[in-house]
Amino acid sequence: MAESSDRSPDLAEDRDPTLKVRPLGSFQFYEFRLVLVSFMVGFVGFQMRQVTNLWLIYDITKSPLSLGLLGVFQFAPMLVLVFVGGSIADMVDRRKLLILTQVGNLVFAAALAALTLTDSIQVWHIYATTLLVAAVNSFEGPARMAMLPRLVPRHYLMNAITLNQAARHGSMLFGPALGGLLIGWVGAGWTYVTVAAIFIPTIGALFFLKPMPPDPEARRRGMSVKSMLEGFRFVFGNNVMLAMMLLDVIAMLFTHHRGLVPIFAEEILNVGTFGFGVLMSAPAAGFLLGSAILLIAGDVRHKGLIVVGTYVAYMGSMAIFATSTTYWISLLALAAVGGLDGVGAIMRSTILQGAVSDEIRGRATAVLQLSNRGGPSMGQLMLGAMAAAITAPNALLVGSVIGIITLVIVISTVRGVATYES
Question: What is the pLDDT of residue 26?
Fold first, then answer.
């Protein structure tokens, strides 16, 4: 008998968890579909705004360091608010919290549109709105990821996380290319207008979700410094999980290439705004291929081995991109970078979500968000400074070597990283 397209997670709990989950299995759950579509549409807008921010900053300043400074404003509020955001996600209705964050994204995109269309835009305006958007999204990430285990049964969790990451990278595939196309066609101001409009259906879809009240125990405990740090205690109490997160942070700090792509596009590969947008989209294309492989494979057991293998291949692909002067080779290298990085991220997220209880899920997810979002933001500053000193290609080459050295140290000192199974 065919399964209902609006089946609830509770009704599906009696399914034999040893059975292989179909590649699109989590789509049978109505609320999961709503959250996924809302996230995918909103993230297209987020990526378009990111591309427009980067292009405007480089167009105004011609400075790699100015591009890198954007990462500081992305990371600074996250460093503090991610702890608060994780705690709030455990204490309030996650649906309401997610709606409020998307309204904030719409407002700031509209502000950038108004400033640009009136020829008033300055670099500090972009930095300021980036700071505010990062503050808002410090609440969005924990709330959204902590929702997933309530939307699907436990044995669908890796499938749901893979589809969520596929939606994210699908947005990264179309968002930057669309942003680059619109910048060249109608200008940066109307691109920001389009971004603001995109958040309207993103918000609307979330109103169709049922309320998601918090765990009673989490609400009873309230918010304190001790409570906010419970996610950290959980992660730091697991050596394997901590080692995997360290690898991710090092990769983001020393090889996060996105802030340098305008330099490669304009000075090395000599492509225009659309070519720049396609370069920004290439990692997402690779990730979608990696996601398809994982969806077909199902809930793979040897997650540690996959994390280590993809990490090595990621560093090699980054080195190829750094040394390439041919556009199509650069595209392929960035596609490989995105695919390998994404598969590793899915493994880490699945390991965390499968191990943590719902009572502290928002706070534990916040730690992962700090790594996933804070690392790239600081990496943007790190690589911007390195590129200003030793050129962009050399900065990425040095970063790749640092990544491999870190992996060797981690495998040598932490038992069970490569052999982790679940």
Answer: 85
Contact 360, 83 (CB under 8 A): no
**DSSP element (H, E) containing 216:** helix 216-221
Buried residues in 281-319 as b, exposed as e (16+ CB within 10 A): bbbbbbbbbbbeebbeebbbeebbbbbbebbebbbbbbb
Residue 327 one-letter amino acid: Y
Name, of 79-83, 192-196, 253-257, 270-274, the range with top average pLDDT.
192-196
CA 170, 52, 261 angle in degrees (round to 5)?
Answer: 75
The answer, yes or no, to whether residue 67 has pLDDT greater than 60, is yes
Question: Mean of the pLDDT values across residues 308-312?
Answer: 89
Longest Cα–Cα distance of the chain, Å, equals 64
Sign of CA dihedral 272, 277, 283, 286: negative
- Match 């709330």 to its residue by tokens: 143
pLDDT of residue 4: 39
How far is 399 from 397, CA to CA, in rounded Å? Answer: 5
CA distances from 194 to 132, 176, 190, 275 (A): 19, 13, 6, 20
Radius of gyration of the chain (CA): 21
Confidence of residue 361 (pLDDT cuts 50, 70, 90): low
pTM: 0.67
* Alpha-carbon span 340 to 106, nearest angstrom: 32
The string of DSSP codes covering 28-96 is: GSHHHHHHHHHHHHHHHHHHHHHHHHHHHHHHHH--HHHHHHHHHHHHHHHHHHHHHHHHHHHHS-HHH
Residues across the chain: 422
Share of the chain above pLDDT 70, in %: 82
Q: How many CA atoms lie within 13 A of 73 on its CB side?
A: 19
pLDDT digits (tens, 9 = 90+) for 272-282: 777 887 888 88
Q: What angle do CA 104, 143, 169 make, to 5 degrees?
A: 80
Q: Which two tokens stand for residue 354?
A: 């499968």
Distance CA 109, CA 105 (A): 6
Structure-block tokens of residue 71 = 């990462």
